[in-house]
Amino acid sequence: MRPFPLSVALGALLLASSVLAQAPTSRPKVTPSTPTPAKPATTTIAPAPGSMGPLAGSSTMGYLQGVAIDSIHGAPLVNAVIQLSGTDRIGLTDSLGRFLVDSVPPGSYKIEVDHPILDTLGIMLSTAAMPFAANEVTRVVLAVPSQEFLANRFCTSARRALGPGVLVGRVREPDSEVAAVGARVSLVWYDPDPQLVAGLQVKVNKAPRVREATVGEDGTYRLCGLPEKYEGKLQAQRKDGGTTAEVVIKQEDGLLALRSMSVAPLAVATGTDSAGKSVPKVMKGAARVLGRVVNRQGAPVGNARVTLNGTGAATLTRENGEFLLDSLPAGTQALTVRHLGYAPQEVAVELSSRAPARVNVQMG
After folding, report:
1. What Å distances lie between residue 307 and 291, 322, 338, CA to CA?
2. Whole-model pTM over 0.85
3. What is the pLDDT of residues 80-96, one digit of tens each?
């Protein structure tokens, strides 16, 4: 058996039309370039992590071996599904991003990558068709495009002139994978205070900064023109009035931030007032959240007040720090936990009527 090194550039080419800022398009495809492979040399096939089947010793089959990289976070792309198009041959990346696909029928196939990061970005990662020969190992490096590359593809130069940062994500309905098409996503933040003047902190009245985008047909949104560092509140709202909580977004470093959310339709029923007139009435939800509140040492915090922001739902933790809230609206919501002697803690939680959410909160 003879391997040949197949180097795939970390930069990739999006095979789609230009992407307009603030208006997501259909999910484009990212195709890594593939240089002409060198002449194979004799070697021995050895098992590698990530195989979805036994490593067959048959000389009638080919093999795919490689590494997948998350260029956005500078880390291996873990638990990514690697598949050869048109076949049932699949591999799964391990904690180091390594994978092996064995028993590949000789032929020419595209290598396709599936991972939640790609779903959030709204892109597909795929190579050009590559030849696979019997009794040979094809080696490849696959990579999610860099932050700078994606930021330039998602936003026009005019929008990036307002700020280099970009926030992207996917918005869906909480009880299904249906995209919340047409929902409005908004981010509100404030510019940082000026630097110290003569050793004193200067406080100024600042107007809020706002960026908005509409969820496209593919379920994604893209907010352009953001600073490199910011802390703000992100919210999605449907046309029928359904909204998410205001979720804290904090970007410390880098150009590209990722945040997906879910937003449910507004559940409204018809009721009657004291005069017998019909009036709309917002219905309670069917979602639940269970959790535990602890301190920095991991000890339970009892009698802490847990509130679901924007609703009247609240409870106190038991002595073991556990709590339960039910009859909640589905979607991306926020919990606030308060207790005397601790700083309040706010955490985002994804609620659905299909299964209860679970969350642990550590008090500062």
Report:
1. 12, 14, 9
2. no
3. 999 999 999 999 999 99
